[in-house]
Amino acid sequence: MSTEPNRPSRCGYIGIVGRPNVGKSTLLNALVGEKIAATTRKPQTTRHRILGIVTRGADQLILVDTPGIDTRSGKLLGRLLNQSAQAVFSDCDAVLFVVEADRWEDGDAQILDMLKAAGAKVVLAINKVDRLPRKEALLPFIEKLRGLHEFADILPVSGLRHVNLEPLVDVLTGCLPEGVHLFPEDELTDRSQRFRVTEVIREQLLERLGQEVPYATVVEVESWRDTPSVTHIDAVIWVERDSQKAIVVGKGGRMIKNVGIAARETLEDILERKVMLRLWVKVREGWQGDADSIRRMGIDP
User: Fold this and answer.
1) DSSP states of 252-292 as a string?
2) Residue 146, SS3?
3) Range of the domain at 230
4) CATH assignment at residue 157
5) d(Cα 235, Cα 247) in Å, to the nearest integer?
């Protein structure tokens, strides 16, 4: 990233918003340079406002990943997640609005209307350009979107393939106010290692289970013990019904075993040490419709 000599430092918050499954968390992880948020091909993967911190010389970007805004959501949990995402419109110095290349839907238009009403400074990121079957379709798509709003800038990017990320950081930095760093230079997120463990496990559940069951799950770390050679982690996967528990456990315990193996391998890469991971599945009925249960589960919309 280019820097001007003797220029005052900049620091501020950039909210990442968009409809479900446009790749917001993948883009966040790519910008930060490390996996801090769960990423899957399924919508509504993100349930938390997660801070990703990018420090480049004198400047510090504090990126706020948010749940995908789904205007059709009817459950209490979904409505709370929408409220959490919309709060960044006014809480942040600028908004990074992520859309999918060559795909503009009603949900995108509704989010743009919300951003206009909030008067937010908006940078538009057209994500997943690596998946375009016809590259020549990109320019007309950019021109179409340019006519919808006076964006601070529009950039085609790929969080998965790390395309155009440095120019994106430059543009976002230009949206920040002058200020000192709010986090140490080597800090990448405000989230604890325990939180990152729950994200890794939940990601594996989302990848392996059907459409409904993974969204009725939440993961809680019950214990964490470090020894000189191994980190021992015990975690509970909460579901809403006994039938869901049976699916998560799987025939002969195969599903939970496979989830545990894949999660452990990822955690060993993140923690850079051997991990012993033990998982249990428990039932707490109707937690998605109860605000107290949602808070007790550690979900913080």
Assistant:
1) GGHHHHHHHHHHHHHHHHHHTSEEEEEEEEEE-TTGGG-HH
2) helix
3) 193-295
4) 3.40.50.300
5) 17
Same structural domain for residues 169 and 60? yes
Q: Is 124 in the same domain as 248? A: no
Amino acid letter, residue 6: N
CA 257 to CA 250: how far, in whole Å? 9
Q: Judge contact between 123 and 172, C-beta under 8 A.
A: yes
Residue 91 near residue 202 (C-beta atoms within 8 A)? no
Residue found by looking up tokens 């799950």 in the block: 217
Amino acid, res. 168: L
51-102: per-residue pLDDT in tens? 899 999 999 999 988 776 665 555 555 565 556 556 677 789 999 999 999 9
User: What are the Cα distances from residue 71, in Å, to 25, 81, 86, 109, 199?
Assistant: 19, 11, 11, 11, 24
β-pairing verdict for 59-65 and 94-100:
unpaired
Cα end-to-end distance, the chain, whole Å: 33
Q: Is residue 181 part of a domain?
A: no
Q: Are residues 147 and 218 in the same domain?
A: no
Q: In which residue ranges of the chain is pLDDT below 50?
A: 1-2, 301
Closest CA to 66 of 115, 131, 33: 115
Q: Give the CATH number for residue 243.
A: 3.30.300.20
Structural domains in the chain (count): 2
| 142-149, long-range: CB < 8 A, 24+ apart | 144/104, 145/99, 145/104, 148/109, 148/112, 149/112, 149/115, 149/116, 149/122, 149/124
